[in-house]
Write a structure and sequence with these properties.
Amino acid/polyamine transporter I, 20 helices
């Protein structure tokens, strides 16, 4: 069994539920995240480059119906987070869904859930540091600085924030979220002003007529809306992070339900509201994949320095994503290492209760993004986001499967469901899983885009996971047996 770190001596408490289930990977953490941190992390997880940058390209493919795609995917994202929230209240864990997969699906389930999530964030980190360097090059003062240098600096800054303490991570993510939320609120207020005043924007009168006069809500038909679902789901990929933070806050049973419940209306306002506003201010044909749709709209409105301001916001979103990825994978890898399914060194904790080894491992993988960008500059971002989307779908399915087993055990009287729960079980879980699997099917038929290649990636990923499991299963089963063995009476 893994040797415990000295930091375990200061562990606030033993994460054991009334049913006696514990995760050794939860020991040693501080409880430094405050309610305001959790609340803003929940918001920040639902707002990223998928909205600020990716929405432009999606608008060109789907038109105003993109708002419907965001609404539908947002509902399923909420179901996933609500199910995860119930599991968190049942037993808070920094290992989050990996720890729950171990409890309800067994060691193999935890192994698959953990490594698919690490794959998600490691590849997302590769995309993030590449994107950050490109965003910084927007300002002429940095154009002479090599891209790899900017990427390395960004990674060093975020890595330092994560290694110092969980409080420094929480504060940084809090202010990152403030920047993103402020930008959207200001945009919506500016848009409302132009809608009410009927002032023209680039020769167009804002209003519903811009949608009706340019092909309606589905100008390209329904199929393009269906095919972009993959990228829309990727935009929501960090909403489950609120479950990981539960292990480092003093009162998760109170804080997490509030954060989860707030996600739904925030998604409605920030995602759906923003897309609708963009199409009410300008025809959907005015937007492109090469520019943030917010930059396009604000520039046409005449807002001074709109490009520079929104570039700063998009840069913040990418930094926030990288920050979140290092935080979550550090905790997930530690939970896996304590169970034997990840390298043992990733279980190490610093004196400030930070799982620094797992964070450093993810950072090392993220650095490969710079090399990939140099090798395939036109395809790098698309390749890594496609791989990451597989991790998102896998993670969400695992969360719903865990919740299904949890509810079944509750009905058998083996565990108790908390008052905060997902409704209409098992129909909500089964419908969500069916939707996510349908997204994979839809990706296969996306012959004009990267969808089919993304689905084909499941083959090498499955082979790698299978080989890895055979390599670690002996250690996993040995640690599990030691964990479950009754204590030895020293007196005989």
């Amino acid at each position: 069994m893994h040797k415990k770190d000295s930091s375990h001596k200061t562990a606030p408490d033993d994460p054991t539920t009334a049913e006696g289930v514990a995760d050794a990977g939860d020991l040693g953490y501080s409880k430094a995240l405050k309610p305001r941190h959790i609340s803003m992390i929940a918001i920040g997880g639902a707002i990223g480059t998928g909205l600020f940058l990716g929405a432009g390209g999606n608008l060109t493919k789907a038109g105003p119906a993109l708002a419907i795609a965001y609404a539908v995917c947002g509902v399923f994202a909420f179901f996933v987070v609500r199910a995860l929230g119930e599991l968190v209240v049942h037993r808070p864990s920094s290992g989050s869904f990996v720890s729950y997969a171990r409890e309800f699906l067994g060691e193999q389930g935890a192994y698959v859930a953990g490594w698919m999530y690490v794959l998600n964030w490691a590849t997302t980190g590769m995309a993030d540091i590449t994107a950050i360097a490109l965003y910084v090059h927007y300002w002429s003062v940095f154009t002479s600085v090599p891209q790899w240098v900017l990427a390395a600096i960004a990674l060093a800054v975020v890595l330092t924030v994560n290694l110092v303490s969980v409080k420094s991570f929480g504060e940084t993510e809090f202010w990152f979220a403030i920047v993103k939320v402020t930008a959207i609120v200001v945009f919506l207020l500016v848009g409302i002003f132009f809608l009410v005043s009927r002032k023209e924007v680039d020769g167009h009168t804002p209003g519903l007529s811009l949608i009706g006069d340019h092909g309606g809500w589905f100008p390209m038909g329904v199929l393009p809306v269906v095919l972009i679902t993959q990228t829309v789901i990727f935009a929501y990929s960090a909403v489950e992070m609120v479950g990981v933070t539960a292990g480092e806050t003093a009162d998760p049973a109170t804080v997490v339900p509030k954060a989860v419940n707030s996600i739904m209306w925030r998604v409605g306002i920030f995602y759906v509201g923003s897309i609708v506003m963009l199409t009410l201010l300008l025809p959907w044909t005015a937007y492109s994949a090469d520019q943030s749709p917010f930059v396009t709209a604000l520039s046409r409105i005449g807002v001074p320095a709109a490009g520079g301001i929104m570039n700063l916001v998009v840069l913040t979103a990418a930094m926030s994503s990288l920050n979140s990825g290092l935080y979550t994978t550090g905790r997930i890898l530690r939970s896996m290492a304590m169970a034997g399914s990840a390298p043992s060194f990733t279980a190490r904790m610093s004196r400030s209760h930070v799982p620094y080894a797992g964070i450093l491992l993810t950072s090392t993988v993220a650095l490969l993004g710079v090399a990939l960008n140099a090798w395939l500059p036109d395809d790098a971002f698309g390749i890594v986001t496609n791989v990451a989307s597989l991790g998102v779908i896998s993670t969400w399915c695992m969360i719903m499967l865990c919740h299904l087993v949890f509810v079944r055990r509750a009905r058998q009287g083996l565990v108790r469901r908390p008052a905060f729960r997902l409704w209409a079980s098992p129909w909500i879980e089964l419908t969500t899983i069916a939707f996510l699997l349908a997204v994979l099917v839809m990706m296969w038929f996306d012959t004009d885009g990267p969808g089919r290649d993304t689905v084909l990636l499941l083959v090498p990923v499955a082979l790698a996971l299978t080989g890895g499991w055979f390599a670690v299963r002996g250690r996993v089963h040995r640690i599990a047996a030691e964990r479950e063995a009754p204590p030895v009476d020293p007196l005989g």
